[in-house]
Structure formats: structure tokens, C-alpha cells
Amino acid sequence: MTAAGQPGRQEARRDGLSIGAVLAQLRGDFPDVTISKIRFLEAEGLVRPGRTPSGYRQFSPADVERLRYVLSAQRDHYLPLKVIKEQLDAADAGAQPPAPVPAAPQLPRRLVPLGDGSDPAGLPAAADFETGPDTRLTQEDLLDQAGIDDAMLAELCQYGLLRPGAAGFFGPESVLIARTVKAMTEFGLEPRHLRAFRAAADREVGLLEQIVTPAYRHRDADAKARADEVVRELAALSVTLHTLLVKAGIRGVAGD
């Protein structure tokens, strides 16, 4: 049995979809996806389309389903590709999960949850890391969508947790940041207590820039797609590392 339960993957399929047709199907839900991205996911073994005798890719409906799962797991759960591939490999093997995975995209087949079934960092679903350049929020949009008031927004900006652009607009990730800080205030924390998070994030951004900036300078589209994936992977891993270090530190304070 081959990936996603599809027999005969090595045989050319006459009724498969071209990569352009697959892109057209995915673009509605994943506007940032590109042909280079699909090729990259194929190169990484996340999807293995068949080939015509002349060498053209032919994707089955199950291949498109796998791509949707991969893209959803990255966008909504911030999972690294390595984790996604392990889940898909487990699904291909027909493994039975001990319990359903909450709030996760549906796999093409059943899977074995990794760890406790949450994302690697144990965090709620995060916003897509690659947000479109034209997605901008006014102050009123942000207040409405995040459920905060003017006073809290002023504090978030004062302590660097939110940074509007030169034209005064906020990025789409600002809503999730504001909601997260609002949830933390229920535990007695205030925006001024969270300045260390901004400082740590800025240091991580500087570190990632050193790694990916050379790749982004290439004009080749495939190189840019690979750089995007490197950013995703490193961002997800940095979130995981940060969470594990905090958990370990709290455990040490508790004396466990």
C-alpha cells in the first residue's frame, strides 16, 4: 500500500490533475500557495504524485487532500514539516490513534498523535506565519476583532507588543497578539510585564534573518519557496523550544 492508501503510485495516471489545476483548487483556501511550494512539498516527501510517460506530474484527489492537510497543519497549528510527515507516515501505515486529536485538521487517514495530541509547543492554533502584504487592520478593526479597549491598545503599543506600520495600520497577527495578552491579564499580568517577550522575539528575528536573508536574495522562485519553509520550520521550532524552557523553569521552581 502506498501513501494515503493509493495503490500503483509509480504507474502513470491518465485522469490525474496537473500541478496548475491543483494550484487552482488550493488557492481559494490557501492564497499564498504557489507551484514552487507544491514542488517543494513533493521534494520533501509530503506528497508523491504520479507521472505521465512524458514526465508530467499527475495528482490524484487523495494527493490534493494530503496537500490540504499539510497546508492546514502549517497555517492553523504551526507544525513543522517533520512532524507533519511523521503524522502522514503513521496514517499511511493505518495506525489507530488512542484518542482523537482535538481541533486539528482531518488527516487523509487515521494517525497516531504525537505527544499529547496538541501541536509540538502545546499552544493553541496560531495565525499563518506568511501573511499577505495587503492585509492591514485599522485601529478600529483591531479593537473590534481583539475585544480590547483603547487603553489596553495604548499599553500594547507603549511596551512594544504591537507595532503599527508607518501608515498607522496593524498586521493581521496583531489580533492574536492582543487576544493572547488579554488572556494573560486575567492571571494578573499586565502589558508592562511582557516587554521581555518582545525583546526575546526581536532577538529571534535577528537570528533568523541571518539564516534566510541570503536565500531571499536569489531571484529563483524555488529558492524563495525553500527560504519560506526554512522560516516556518525555524519559527515553529523556536516556539517549541521557548515553551519547553518555560515549562522546565516552572517545574524547577515548583520543585518537581
UniProtKB/TrEMBL annotation:
Task: Indicate the secretion signal residues.
Answer: none
GO terms of molecular function = DNA binding; DNA-binding transcription factor activity
The residue ranges of the HTH merR-type domain are 32-90
Segments for region (Disordered): 93-117
* SUPFAM superfamilies attached to this UniProt entry: Putative DNA-binding domain
Q: Which PROSITE patterns match?
A: HTH_MERR_2
Q: InterPro entries of this UniProt entry?
A: DNA-bd_dom_put_sf (IPR009061), MerR-type_HTH_dom (IPR000551), MerR_fam (IPR047057)
Keyword annotations: DNA-binding
PANTHER family, per the entry:
HTH MERR-TYPE DOMAIN-CONTAINING PROTEIN, REDOX-CYCLING DRUG-SENSING TRANSCRIPTIONAL ACTIVATOR SOXR
Q: What is this protein called?
A: MerR family transcriptional regulator
User: What is the species listed in this Swiss-Prot or TrEMBL entry?
Assistant: Amycolatopsis echigonensis
